[in-house]
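Exercise 7.
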Amino acid sequence: MATEAGVAAREPWWQALAEAWARLRGVPLDPLGRPLPRARVRRHDGFVSLQFVRGQTQSRMRGNAPEHLLIDYTRTMLGVLLWNPRPARVGIVGLGGGSQVKFLHRHLAGTRLEVVENHPGVIAVRREFGIPDDDARLEVVLDDGARFVATRPGRFDLLLVDGYDARGIPASLATVEFHRACRAALAPGGALASNLHGDQPAPHVERLREAFGEGRVRVVEEPRMNNRVVFAWVGDAPGDGALDAACNALSAEGARELRPALARVARELARPDPWTP
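Solution. The predicted structure, written as tokens, is:
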């Protein structure tokens, strides 16, 4: 994986010129100096949405229930709790509107959340989405997601990857090197959940299989969305009792909200894998 210095050394002259022009115009830049679209907050019909491009929603919440997991795939991704219901440390790539951050911070006591976001504008509007300020259990850092993961070997019990820009999954989060770094960032017995949105998930799944091994990757479809959630792990798959253990670790309110999604993931894991890229 290229370091920041390595990336800068290989930048063509026209990219450096484009970045200088972006700085002059006040365009936001990511931690590697690349121009970013502006982060916009839209309020409509009781919802609050994060957008980079008008008409294209990156994240959405109910204005009167900011901790509620409104979007189906965000609940499915938390099926990763079946592997470890009481993680000491969870890494999250992509802050967005902070749906999972808010849910875990409220309903999973004792877990530290370390979140990386590469867009300063997204971090700047965190309070508009009800994301708590940093405290002993929550830290949000501005950094490149691939670099963040690569510099934290063995750190996380669970890892959630949901990094998107206006065009989809950024190139830096779609390499074999990144997926190998994800595996290396997991503690023994750790597991990852990644959101794949769009029509071509196969290359991402194959990279995960190369990094984690053929028998330690599982895709779960979202029936009502054009999303798939892929789980990958470094130890054993969840065993009997994992569903109850995950629900018991949550607050009563959190368990009520999340149990149907956890049960669906558990059922999918118990079946023969029907998904082939």
